[in-house]
Specification:
Blueprint (H helix, E strand, L loop, with lengths): L6 H16 L15 H26 L6 H32 L22 E2 L4 H22 L6 H33 L3 E2 L16 H13 L1
Parallel strand pairs: 1-2
Length: 225
């Protein structure tokens, strides 16, 4: 992998085509790539991130139902936590692969909590990573898909469709802006003008060692045992 020119166009195409193929969220989970093919591995994790974002989208809709039991909503909420964790993990894997291919992180340390950076002298630090921009583009694709469906509804009046079209145009513009930021960041990193890091999210709410409510719950269970 030597160039990332116009990566944003390829990312947006993947997001849109998988949503169209699935008929809406969630999209199909991508096949496991050959671990020696770095390009295939990058696209597997971009697709995996989109899969979990789309799964989150579907669960968020279900969690807002008002005519089902509390147990069903609780199941939705637990699924949301799981998918959100997996979405963040996938974003980190995208950054690890990109940074390794860009020569900005030592490959042996890329998946650790302390990746060893190799930063060109004078390069500026970009606070947002390429993976996080791709993650945001995935969410934008879901919004675009949903808003486009609103423009095609036949059970609403023309004012609703027209208003939805205005919103759709804005969403497309916003995604285009994100894509430009992604391409410019990658171009700047390849030119030695910028760099970004792998940022670990360290989500604490899913970890029974760190979530105070789960720690207290476990202490109660142990005391009863």
């Amino acid at each position: 992998m030597t160039t990332f020119k116009r990566l944003s166009t390829q990312v947006a195409t993947l997001h849109d085509t998988t949503l169209a193929a699935a008929g809406g969220p969630p999209v199909a989970q991508p096949a496991v790539a050959d671990g020696t093919d770095r390009t295939a591995l990058l696209w597997q994790w971009i697709g995996t991130n989109h899969f979990f974002n789309s799964s989150l989208w579907a669960e968020e809709d279900l969690a807002r139902r008002t005519t089902v039991s509390g147990d069903e909503i609780a199941q939705n909420k637990r699924a949301i936590d799981k998918f959100n964790q997996a979405r963040n993990d996938a974003t980190e894997r995208v950054d690890e692969i990109l940074l390794t291919e860009l020569g900005l992180v030592d490959a042996a340390s890329a998946q650790t909590d302390a990746p060893v950076a190799k930063v060109p002298a004078g390069a500026r630090l970009n606070s947002e990573t390429a993976g996080s921009i791709i993650d945001r583009m995935s969410i934008m694709a879901l919004k675009i898909h949903a808003m486009r469906e609103q423009t095609l509804r036949t059970d609403v009046d023309q004012a609703h469709r027209d208003g939805s079209q205005v919103k759709l145009d804005k969403l497309l513009q916003q995604r285009g802006d994100l894509g430009t930021c992604l391409d410019e960041l990658l171009a700047d990193t390849q030119a030695g003008r910028a760099y970004f890091k792998v940022y670990r999210q360290f989500k604490m709410y899913n970890d029974p060692r760190f979530n105070p409510a789960l720690v207290a719950e476990q202490a109660v269970l142990q005391s009863k045992g």
